Amino acid sequence: MRAKRHAKFDAKFDVQNFLDSAGVARKVVAYTPGQIVFTQGDPCDHVLYVQNGNVKLSVQSKGGREAVVAMLRAGEFFGEGCLAGQPVRMGTATATSPSSILLVDKQRMVRLLHAKHALSDRFIAHMLARNIRIEEDLIDQLFNSSEKRLARTLLLLARYGKHDKPVRAVPPISQATLAEMVGTTRSRVNFFMKKFQRLGFIDYKNGLKVNNSLLTVVLHD
């Protein structure tokens, strides 16, 4: 019985409300589209939480080549490497839409995670989901074609499987960014996007929308 009550409580746990009530939400920064939240190599001393908006995480090689590793929405943490002793940021975070980001000092975040089990549970779930996503991305890069990788990326951006709606809107994203996420050229992305549109898998009316039927591209051998 205790386990059931605990699970029910966790399911209703509101991270934002807790951070507000805990007196943490004092350093909230507003960002405009294209504005840098932090840069690769910056000191790693805060955990960040997306209150609203969208954030792109990217990594740049010494040769200047950029790869997009994640697109975040409201309700997601990032910059958690500081909790594991990471001294500097391993990548760059950029707002892709008007965004409000909450910064939580790493020492305070550690205390909150120890004091509030519901927050700790939610944070662990976030980390596990992130780890699973990284493993899936690696497998995707190793074994799938660029067309399949693009289809999977669009479905992930549309939060496939997390909503009942067959068609979901995707946050504003350029074909250049999609190419960086997929690991291909912009011209290839443009070619496949036109193909997906022709087949009815995506729609550009009032912003990019993805139909769940796009999953057939991912599953096709």
For the structure shown, list the relevant keywords.
single chain, alpha+beta, Jelly Rolls, Arc Repressor Mutant, subunit A, 2 domains, 4-stranded antiparallel beta sheet, globular
Please provide a written account of the structure.
With 221 residues, the chain is an alpha+beta fold. The protein folds into 2 domains: 2-140, Jelly Rolls; 145-219, Arc Repressor Mutant, subunit A. 42% of the residues lie in helices and 23% in strands. The chain has helices at 2-12, 15-21, 106-115, 117-143, 146-157, 175-182, 186-198, 215-219, and strands spanning 28-31, 36-38, 46-52, 54-60, 66-73, 77-78, 92-95, 99-105, 167-169, 202-203, 209-211. The strands form 3 sheets. The protein has a 4-stranded antiparallel sheet with strand order 1-8-3-6. α3 crosses α4, α5 crosses α6 and α6 (175-182) packs across α7. The termini are far apart. Residues 1-9 have low confidence and may be disordered.
